[in-house]
Amino acid sequence: MIGHIFRLNKHWGNCLTTCLLLLAFSGSTLADQEEENKKEYSVKAAFIYNFSKFIDWPELASQKSNEFNICIIGSNPFEKETLSKLSTKKTKAKNVKFLNISPYEKLPPCYIVFINTPENTVRQGIIRASKKHNVLTVSDQENFTSNGGAIELFTSNRKVRFKINLAATKRAGLEVSSKLLNLAIKVENREAQQ
User: Would you call 116 helix, strand, or coil by DSSP?
Assistant: First the structure.
């Protein structure tokens, strides 16, 4: 009887040790994944800011506001510290300002809109509105450029890359530098799929 209890305790002890090891490794994997996501979105924020240097907006110089608004619609995946650093910069002789906007709020004047909402009707509404207001639409959602968005960010081999839909930038009245087009992994020139 004592031998049987000892074997059961030894079995449960081995099970407990294995579970604790798995838990420890999965915890570090989750922490590593979280850190990787933070780095990825820091790079994506820098990309979004840098896009402003390679795109011309009509009548930008004549705008009275001294702010270059970059709006984030939906949940904000960017670190506050990253956005604070980028908000100290200027582009097109204007102060960069990041604004987090609910998908249901009235949009303030934005030059770039990063769309991070799973709702297709909201995305499509923003894309349609961008045509009238000279707004560059950016997202990291799959098939964004195929569905009428201007720039789609994605990762490949752990590096952030981007695609450009020239038809979308032209519809929004924006002029894209050939330098930016050369850096894009893919340049499309098509209307949104219906």
Answer: strand
Tokens 């569905």 correspond to what residue?
147
pTM (two decimals): 0.81
Q: Are 151 and 176 in contact (CB under 8 A)?
A: no
**Least confident window among 13-22, 27-36, 172-181:** 13-22
Task: For 7-23, write each residue's pLDDT tens digit.
Answer: 444 444 455 455 444 44
What are the structural domains, with CATH classification, of the chain?
Answer: 42-188 (3.40.50)
Q: Quick one: three-class SS letters along 62-114? A: CCCCCEEEEEEEECCCCCHHHHHHHCCCEECCEEEEEEEECCCCCCCCCCEEE
Locus of tokens 């097109």: 92
CB-based contact 172:135 (threshold 8 Å): yes
